[in-house]
Amino acid sequence: MTAVSIILPTYNRSHFLDNAFQSLLAQTFKEWELIIVDDGSTDNTEEKVKELQSKNTFPIKYCKRENGGAALARNTGIPLAKGEFIAFFDSDDYWDADHLSRAISALKKNPSLDWLYFACRRKDFLTGALLLPSTFYTNNQKNPLFSCASHKSDDIYFLENEKAALCQIKVGIDSGLQNSVFRRHIFNKFLLPNFRVGEDRLFILQILKANFKGAFVDRVTVTYNVHDNNTSDTNLNESNKEKRILAMERLIASYIETFKLSSLSLREKNALRKRLSEDYVWKLGYSLQRENGNYRDAAASMIRGIRYWPFKLSYWKTLLVTLLKGVKGG
Which fold has domain 240-328? Predict the structure, then answer.
């Protein structure tokens, strides 16, 4: 049996595939198959895949579907997987050579673990400049995910599900798809939610609430390249305000969908309401829309946020100032 099935969704990114495949070839762990899911590309992706298949002995499966977004493309690849473990790889990212070997070794040594993840570094794709050394740290301080660990063994931090689920709602536990390796049986119960942004956050929350056991290693093994065509919520850090607004709106939509989880506790629902109110009022309404001079949309976003958490006076003050600025025309 193939140990790891690597699922790579792609859309009009044939120019990334050579480098992506070289990153996989460099893995010291060799028992893997690659499943490329073409999400309706109109470039020469299919020809590029055939070229890779003809030049390499590693198993490369290819399927093409109508365009539906990365989440649906990944879900299309899951039934084709033969591996005991499943990993997701994006064509514009890189794995360090020991990424898979470290993950598989840790999962095999700890059979109670269902999934494991590592930190990412973020780089500017065009310049190569390092934007963030580790997604587990902010200003050299540990992120809240460390407080979610029940214990540590060797270099592995084992998550306490209840704490991790609450943290995932409030600020996130820095677990994405491209920096995680999952046991296949998780996908017998869950597939990825169909969102353009935020599907990984909801998916991780779902598996935490279903009591699948996760852990993380405080080591950077993944490079996330930031560029104009990224579809993830990394776009929230970009200078393009319209793209940031769209990314935030999509992320908020994924959190609204989270309310449908019947397993959420009252504490988690309240945390979700607070998160939505903050995202609507401060991140979308104030920081993105009002600062861009769009007072009408800003006020509408703030009102939506206040509906989720009407108890914060600063929200009402900010809404009033926004309405007055809109009347005065800025």
Answer: 1.25.40
